[in-house]
Amino acid sequence: MNNKKAGVIIVDDHKLFRKGVEALLSDFDFVEVLGEAGNGIELLDILKQNSKKPDIILLDLSMPEMDGPEVFEILRDEYPDIKVIILTMEDDNQIILHLIQLGVNGYLLKSADTDEMETALRKVLRNDFYFSDNITEIVMKDLLNHRNTPKSVEIKLTSRELDILHLICEELTAGEIADKLCLSARTVEGYRAKLLSKTQTKNMAGLVLFAVKNKLIDI
After folding, report:
1. Which of 10, 57, 59, 149 is surrounded by the fewest CB atoms within 10 Å?
2. More confident call, 16 vs 153
3. What range defines the domain where residue 86 resides?
4. For the residues of the chain, what is the DSSP string, one character each?
């Protein structure tokens, strides 16, 4: 990662919580807080009024006027380059799985400690996704609960696509995958785009979730 700090916007309807997260982030030398909002409407206003867009948005789910899921769908369509980490008290398994399938880059509970927050931010910036141990556990439980259910999507991947999928799931960047497989970074990006298209997933987080749920990788 270069010396440029990643811009972050905090979105939560509790001002004291926003200030607490801002204070926490001030200890990280690789990010800077660009702003904060109390709901989705305020966030969209900030994005429209400022030419400098954040790299990451920390987004609560339950907010007045426009909540997290509603604003996320707008972000996904209008600002696809902005990464979104859900930061919430909501630990419902189906909500978590649904949001990852929609394309969020990470999911953190507000009970997470400082180290996990830093890890999540770094991994989302580096790899486009972050799965905590509890998210992996949720995915595995969902797998066990539906182990007799046929796969919802049947796809055929080439051996090279499977190689790249495995390395993505091991959290290697496009550059690292390129070095490991003696390919160009552009070629790897092409494979990544093809994998997203074939699996009908939104981003790397959704791709990893798809790979786990369809038993394309072992974890």
Report:
1. 149
2. 16
3. 6-130
4. --SSPEEEEEE-S-HHHHHHHHHHHTT-TTEEEEEEESSHHHHHHHHHH-SS--SEEEE-S--SSS-HHHHHHHHHHH-TTSEEEEEES---HHHHHHHHHHT-SEEEETT--HHHHHHHHHHHHHHS-B--HHHHHHHHHHHHHTTTSPPS------HHHHHHHHHHHTT--HHHHHHHHT--HHHHHHHHHHHHHHHT-SSHHHHHHHHHHTTSS--
- In CATH, what number is assigned to the domain containing residue 105? 3.40.50.2300
What's the pLDDT score for residue 144?
A: 60
The CATH number of whichever domain residue 208 belongs to comes to 1.10.10.10
**What residues form DSSP beta bridges with 9?**
35, 57
Burial label for 109, CB within 10 Å (0-12, 13-18, 19+), is middle
pLDDT higher than threshold 80 for residue 141: no
Same domain membership, residue 110 and residue 10? yes
Q: Which residue has the tokens 């995915």?
A: 139
Residue identified by tokens 């799965």 is: 131
Integer angstrom CA distances of residue 145 from 81, 99, 114, 213, 217? 34, 19, 32, 11, 18
* Number of domains observed in the structure of the chain: 2
Phi, psi of 51 (to 5 degrees): -70, -30
> Which amino acid is present at 81?
D
pTM: 0.84
